[in-house]
Every structure is written in C-alpha cells, then in structure tokens.
Write a structure and sequence with these properties.
By secondary structure, this protein is of the alpha+beta class. The chain has a single domain, classed as HIT-like (HIT family, subunit A, 2-Layer Sandwich), CATH 3.30.428.10. The chain contains three helices and five strands, in the order αβββαββα. A five-stranded antiparallel beta sheet has the order 1-2-3-5-4, covered by helices on one side.
C-alpha cells in the first residue's frame, strides 16, 4: 500500500527537503507542532521499526543526532522530542517508519505527553527481563 511518504520519495508530492542521502530522507512536517518540526524517514519502505533492515536502521541512527543538532540550532530550542510510533494503536498515522524531531520551545507548543506510569514488581521484572534476553538470543 502506497503512503504519502512513498509519493514524497517518488517526487509525486512536493516537500521542504532538509536532508537526503542514499538511505535517509528528511523534510519539514506540513502540520508542525512547533517551528522546525522535521520528519526523518528511511528510503526503505517498511511500516514499523522492527521491520527495517540493519542497514536502514544504522543509517537513521547515524543521521538523527546530526539533524537534531540542526533543528536545535535553527529553532533556538535546547529541548526537543524524538517521536516514533509503530501501529495504529500507538498513534501511527502514516504506515512508513518515520521519526519526528519536535522542538519544545515552551510548555504551550511542541509535543505534549501523558505518561500513565505503572510499577514493576521485582519478581515479575526479573522474569520479563529473562524472557527478553531469551528473545534476543
């Protein structure tokens, strides 16, 4: 299924390009939460982060800090959020991996977050950590 990001990568829809290399494309969000809100996408067309190849993931990891520094410099913000959602229930609207760099100039603009923290039982935490280690093996 084609997404708006596929159309941007294909040159069918214009954008305000910020950065491009062989693996990564970055452009300004057309519905910014604050000035400088930038989207960073892999050229590899995958919906969720865990589907990306190691090469595409590494390419994003290499360029994301550099882009964040540029956004900070231009926006004048010291604080910012990096947001990446996977799946509709996690608020993903465009099903192509993308990272938002969102400057946070003040409490009124930028990203707002509700964080309903729970608690982690020691025994359950140990079992969960072991399950995750097993899944990585």
């Amino acid at each position: 299924m084609s997404t708006i990001f596929d159309k941007i990568l294909g040159g069918e829809i214009p954008c305000h390009k910020v950065y491009e290399d062989d693996h990564v494309f970055a452009f300004l969000d057309i519905g910014p939460l604050s000035t400088g809100h930038t989207l960073v996408i892999p050229k590899e067309r995958k919906a969720k982060l865990h589907e990306l190849s190691d090469d595409a993931s590494a390419a994003i990891g290499r360029v994301l800090p550099r882009l964040a520094r540029a956004v900070m410099k231009v926006s004048g913000c010291e604080d910012y959020n990096i947001l990446q959602n996977n799946g509709a229930r996690a608020h993903q609207a465009v099903f192509h991996v993308h990272f938002h760099i969102i400057p946070k100039p003040n409490e009124a603009s930028g990203l707002g977050i509700r964080w309903p923290a729970g608690s982690l039982d020691g025994t359950a935490g140990a079992a969960l950590a072991q399950s995750l280690r097993d899944a990585l093996a």
